[in-house]
Design a protein that fits this description.
Blueprint lengths: L1 H8 L5 H8 L8 H13 L3 E6 L7 H20 L4 E5 L10 H17 L4 E3 L7 H15 L3 E6 L5 H8 L10 E5 L14 H17 L3 E5 L3 H13 L7 E6 L4 H9 L4 E7 L3 H11 L3 H10 L2
Parallel strand pairs: 1-2, 1-8, 2-3, 3-4, 4-5, 5-6, 6-7, 7-8
Helix pairs in contact: 2-11, 4-5, 5-6, 7-8, 8-9
Bound molecules: dihydroflavine-adenine dinucleotide.
The site of dihydroflavine-adenine dinucleotide has 22 residues, from β4, β5, β7 and α12.
GO molecular function, one term: proline dehydrogenase activity
Protein name: proline dehydrogenase
InterPro entries: FAD-linked_oxidoreductase-like, PRODH_bac_arc, Proline_DH_dom, Proline_oxidase
């Protein structure tokens, strides 16, 4: 209740106050800050995935601008020798306005990444986007094989069926590459599992299916229980190090993160940056009031 009230008040709070907690999770506003954070993570033997903030744009001019920024980001990050790849949200390129325009922009970004022998991960957004984003991914995967991956959300009731469909998809010698996360959007119960334990159970079922079907798994979670269970599955299926990695968000559970790195597993951190940090932070908080407790901790227990 208190979390919800706080979350609703957030867009009206001073930007500086919001920045106090956001800065833990966001590298900064510009490419230089993104580079700085990425270099520090690389020094700790952690790879990154770079994300330019922005989503659900309202006109196609913004899509063009976002594409140009991504092209610049790919140039800069590869020129600086950053160990990492890139993530993007299709609604930032007009997915819900004009699917063809969106496809062409993302295609151009992936072509650039492929030219640099790099990789683009398509983030998964709310449930109205799932079918379109899966189709977008399939089309791009056919053309760019090893240079594109997708996110899968364990909380969706449909996910195991989607993975089963994918198991028949021609991989052209490059495994399907999925990041498996719980899912962050607030969805109705007809669409998504709501119970915490149920989501965990489905996460592990999905992960097991991915290992059984030789799909590359980006194990994206800060849930210690899931990390330990994932390690058991890796052991059970003797999954080679080339077929999985752990992924976490910048600023979240750094101790768990370093314990995984110390145990010799590959780790990638999602590094968001950009001018849209304020909208991003407040929207996320309104969508998921549970996050408000993280803010209280960040503000008062630093
Ligand atoms: P859970 O929420 O249970 O968190 C476990 C513990 O981690 C918490 O108890 C807390 O201690 C800590 N924690 C988690 N989040 C925290 C935070 N923000 N601040 C401080 N502590 C925190 N979702 C989606 O729908 N589409 C996507 O494309 C992506 N992409 C993505 C990339 C990466 C690399 C990650 C790690 C996550 C995503 N997500 C996502 C978000 C994901 O779906 C999920 O909402 C969060 O990872 C939280 O779920 P956990 O599995 O970490 O468990």
């Amino acid at each position: 209740m208190f979390n919800k009230m706080l979350a609703n008040l957030l867009p009206y709070m001073p930007k500086k106050l919001i920045w106090l907690f956001s800065k833990r999770y966001i590298a900064g506003e510009g490419i230089d800050q993104g580079l700085e954070v990425s270099k520090k993570l690389n020094e700790k033997n952690i790879e990154v995935t770079i994300d330019l903030l922005g989503e659900f744009i309202t006109n196609l001019e913004q899509a063009e601008e976002n594409k140009n920024q991504y092209l610049e980001i790919i140039e800069r990050f590869t020129a600086e020798g950053i160990q990492g790849n890139f993530s993007l949200k299709p609604t930032m390129f007009g997915l819900l306005i004009d699917q063809e325009v969106c496809y062409q922009h993302i295609r151009e970004i992936i072509a650039k990444a492929a030219e640099k022998n790099n990789f683009i991960r398509i983030d998964m957004e709310d449930s109205q986007c799932v079918d379109i984003e899966i189709e977008l991914f399939k089309k791009l995967k056919k053309e760019f094989s090893g240079h594109v991956g997708l996110v899968i959300q364990a909380y969706l009731r449909r996910t195991l069926e989607d993975l089963t469909d994918f198991s028949n998809f021609p991989s052209n010698g490059y495994p399907l590459n999925f990041r498996l996360c719980k899912g962050i959007y607030v969805e109705p119960k007809q669409i998504a599992f709501k119970d915490y334990e149920e989501v965990r159970k489905h996460y592990l079922e999905d992960l097991e299916f991915m290992f059984q079907n030789k799909m590359y798994a980006g194990i994206a979670t800060h849930d210690k229980f899931l990390v330990e269970e994932a390690l058991k599955l890796i052991e059970k299926y003797q999954v080679p190090q080339t077929m999985y990695e752990f992924q976490m968000l910048y600023g979240v559970t750094p101790e768990l993160r370093s314990s995984i790195v110390k145990r010799g597993h590959k780790m990638r951190v999602y590094v968001p940056f950009g001018k849209q940090w304020f909208n991003y932070s407040t929207r996320r908080l309104k969508e998921n009031p549970k996050m408000a407790s993280h803010i209280i901790k960040a503000l008062f227990f630093r």
